Structures are given as structure tokens and as C-alpha cells.
Amino acid sequence: MNRILLTAALLGLTNASLASAQTTVEFWHSFGDAKRSGWIQARADEYNKTHSGVKVVPSYKGSYNDSLQATILAARQGKAPALVQIFEVGSQLALDSGAFQPVSSVKNVDFSDYIKPVINYYTIGGKVNSLPFNSSSPVLYFNQDLMKKAGLNPKQPPTTYGGLIKACQKIEAANLDTTCFGMSLNGWFIEQWMAQQGAPLLNNGNGRQGRATATNLDSKAAKNIFTFFKTMQDRKYYTYTGKLEDWDGSDAIFTNQKSVFHITSTADIGNIRDAAKKAGFSVGVGVLPIADGSKRNGVVIGGASLWISKGISKPQAEGALDFALYMTNTQNMAEWHKLTGYYPVRQSSIELLRKQGWFTQTPLQLVAFNQLTRTVPSAATAGGLNGAAIQTRKIMEEGVQKVLGGQNVDAALKETKARADAALAEYNANFK
């Protein structure tokens, strides 16, 4: 009897020591919907089953900004999660917080499989600071049925501002009882259109050669963008919900057939395609229309990446990176892309999708891929690094909103630049 009790006690000790030896990796992310958060949880469950020494615990922590702020606060309290999903324009703020360590410093990783425009964004000061996860860029969506009714060819969607305006003239003449064009009012698109013209949004190499101290909103490229919005508004070709950054509301305008053309993220391809099918029309996808007379330079990557906290144990950091690499491996990124429409970020995932015939089955996705892979590497297309990016994005949105309300383009740009530059100066004052 005593032997049985002793054996039981020893087994209990062994199990207790195993439990204490297990490394917990908290993973904070910003996907609250069942589809995407469920996919993340499923990957964590798979990983945990095959890695007894590590337990990955994913948690939804609110919006990108909420999650980033919560992480910085937790780090100050010595309670930082091991792995965090941070949106692309939060990169400078994440770096400045001192709460994170470059993924390239945790252990040696071969980054050669990542799509260049994606990995370039997250390579800062020669170091890969975070691991690409959900990446996207903007494309043009169009209602093929309404285009045909207006006498337009859906196989030749507009590729420039001027081309879009000409298409709108035909739509207006056709009396289709719909607005020509809609998109959410978001600073992300201004950043994209600056990059497409080969123009950095910020000085000092888009904030990559030194801390950005001023915007380039007094440039010809910026004026082209604001003038485009004014022209579309003056001719009553543009519609939006009236709210800033209303992604869902703007998507609804398009899927309810209240606009013929729509610009939004590649990440919405799946949802918009399904909504269009339900509404009874065929949707098409084209490249992002750009300013007339400018060479197509390509897009800046959007979305988010995976950062590893600094104030954690070495086993936690290695476990976080190991899980991040597992979640973003070739097979998983291909499946993630199919589920969501986000880019799969790995070249090998694209090759796998091609072998599976995915792009033949879903040609809408091919346009987005080609637009991304043909991006010309430069400071402009690498994306701007700006610790006050959340503020400056909103300031640019409010600037466009003033133009839509009737303000002169030059006056709106002057005011917008002054406000954005002031926000940069205020932020940078923390680092003198």
C-alpha cells in the first residue's frame, strides 16, 4: 500500500515539475471576428499538441491601437505578453517604446522566402524587427453588371484618376441611379497614392534614414491626391458615409450597388465577393488607379506583423518566435489567404497556391498579387515610419474632408501639413 502511495506521490511530483517547466506564450491580437480569431486559435491548438513544453494562449485585445497601448502599459508593469500583433504604422511607436526586441535577434531565421515588399517594410535599421503576418494593399473593385449597363468594358477597368473620371461621365450619362465611386476616407490611401507616385510621405527617407520631422504634403504628389477628391466631389461622382475610416460602411455602399467603383483593401476580397454574389452582381478587381502622368511604382504594404516583447524569458521569446514561424509557414499562409484575402506573405505559399490552381479558380486574387510583386523597392514604397502616425493619418483624413466640404485644395493642404508637422514635432520632442 505504501509503495502505491509513494509511486502516486512521485508521479504527482513529476507532473507538477512538467507543468512548471511548461513555457506559456501569451499572444495578443486584434481579430475579434469568429472567422479569423478561430483560425488563430486552431493554429495555437495544433501547435500546443505537438509542443508539450510550450503553451500558446491567444487573446483578442481590441483594435490595433488598443492592443499596442495595452502592450506598452503591460511592459512597464513587467507583465508583457510574449507575442503581439501590431499594425504596420505602429512600427515606429513600437520601436520607440523599447518594449520589443527584433525577431532577428531571438535566433537566426531565414527571411528569404518572404515577399520582398512585405519584409522590406518591417526591416528597419538593417534589422527585421517583426515577422509579417496579415498583409494587404488597396485595389479597385467594380460592379461588372453596372459597368456594362453604362457601356463600359469590365475587362478594361480604369487605371488612372483621369480614366476613372471618364468612366464616371459615362455612368452619369447612363442614369443608373447610383453614384460612380465610393471609398472610406482613410489616411492609408493617401500614403498609398504618394508611394504610387514615387513620393515619400515623410522627409528623411520616409523616416527610414532618420527620424521624420516633416511631411511632404506640400508636394505635387499630395496636391494630385487632394485635387482628385475635390474633382470627384464637385462632379458628384464620390460617395462615403460621412465618417472617417468607415471601412464597413463604405463596403456596404458598394455591395448594395450604390456605387459602381470602390477602393478598399485586398483583405476584403472574400467578403465583398460573397456579398456581391448574394446581391446578385458580378464583382471585378483592378489595380489601384493612380495620378495621371505618374509611373506606377507600386503599393505600400498594409496590415500587421508579429512582435516579440523584450522583458520576457529566453524560452518565452524562442517559443513565441517558433509559434509565429509555425503560424506563418507555407501551408498555413496559403490557407490564411484563402480564408481572408490577406496576402500569404511567403513566396512558397504563392507557388503552392499556383500548383493548387487557386488563381485559376479565383482570378480576382491574381490582380492583387501582381500589383504587389511588381512594386519597385524605394523609400516611398517601403512605407513611412512615424511615431505619430495615428495622429497624422487622422489629420490627413480631416484635410480631405475639408476639401470635400468645399475648401480650396491649396489652403487645405497648407493647414493639413502644418497640423501634421506639429504632431510630429510634439512626438519627437520626447526623444531629444
UniProtKB/TrEMBL annotation:
UniProt xrefs under InterPro entries: Bact_solute-bd_prot1 (IPR050490), SBP (IPR006059)
Keyword annotations from UniProtKB, A to Z: Signal, Transport
Coiled-coil regions, chain positions: none
Signal sequence segment: 1-21
Gene3D superfamilies, per database record: Periplasmic binding protein-like II
Location(s) in or outside the cell: Cell envelope
Domain of life according to the entry: Bacteria
Principal localisation: other
A Pfam family: SBP_bac_8
Family that this chain belongs to: Belongs to the bacterial solute-binding protein 1 family.
This protein's name: ABC transporter substrate-binding protein
Organism: Deinococcus aquaticus
